[in-house]
Structure formats: structure tokens, C-alpha cells
Amino acid sequence: MPAPQNESLRQEDLNRLARAPGWQRVLMATLQPLYNVISVEAFAHSGLEGVLLVADLRPRPDLPQRGQELRTLFAIVETPRGRTTTVCTEEKTRFATRRSEFEAVARGVVPPR
Questions:
Q1: CA 33, CA 13: separation in Å to the nearest integer?
Q2: What are phi and psi of 100, to 5 degrees?
Q3: pLDDT in tens, 19-60
Q4: Which phi and psi angles does 34 have, rounded to 5°?
């Protein structure tokens, strides 16, 4: 996703931002209307630093019950050209066994530089 606000920043600045608790709180706040955020961790990939968030959908009347059985991993990194978000979802009962696979998928993505 293009991020014009990133254009004047160096990758080192964006990496430092990704480590900042304030930026991580902003990401959590962005997801919280739809998700219960379970965990937030650092994510590093090819000289880029970002965040991994694990979250469950919040119950809502307009969502099928099936949504309550799923867990999602978001891998988010910023570059001067934009934000890249990788999203992987699995049954809560199988999420832990597939998490390393999801992280490998996120590391396989080539963000715009």
C-alpha cells in the first residue's frame, strides 16, 4: 500500500519506528475495532524491521460464528515506498502448528524499496 508519509524517511528511520512501542500501539488500535490482539512481536526480514501481530476476530452479529474459530497473523513492514501487510489465517486449534509456515510466507514477500 503506498504510504506518501514514508517517502522522506530512510529505511533506518522506519526500522527504528517499527521498534517503537508507540507505533506498535497505533497498529494495535487500528486492528482493535475488529480484532482482539493477542500478541505483538518484532519481525525482521532482509534489512527491514516490522511487527507480527496475532489476533482473533471480535464477535459481531454480522459475522458468521465460524469467524470465532479462526486466528490471524499479521506481518507488517514499512519502506519508503509503502506498507506491506501479509495476513495468514488458520483454525485456532491448528494455528500454533502452522505459525512457522506463516512466518516463512511473510519472509518470502518482497516489499517495495
A1: 28
A2: -60, -35
A3: 999 999 999 999 999 999 999 999 998 899 999 999 999 999
A4: -110, -20
**pLDDT surpassing 70 at residue 1:** no
- Could you tell me which of 88, 110, 84 has the C-alpha nearest to residue 99? 88
**Integer Cα distance of 2 and 36 in angstroms:** 26
- The set of cell numbers assigned to 16 is 527504528
Using the CB atoms, write b or e for 59-74: b if 16+ within 10 Å: eeeeeeeeeeeebbbb
CA distance 19 to 42: 7
Beta strands in 9-105 (DSSP E): 35-45, 48-57, 70-79, 82-91
CA distance 18 to 78: 8
Name the 3-class secondary structure at 65. helix
Encode pLDDT of 55-95 as tens digits.
999 999 998 989 999 999 999 999 999 899 999 999 999 99
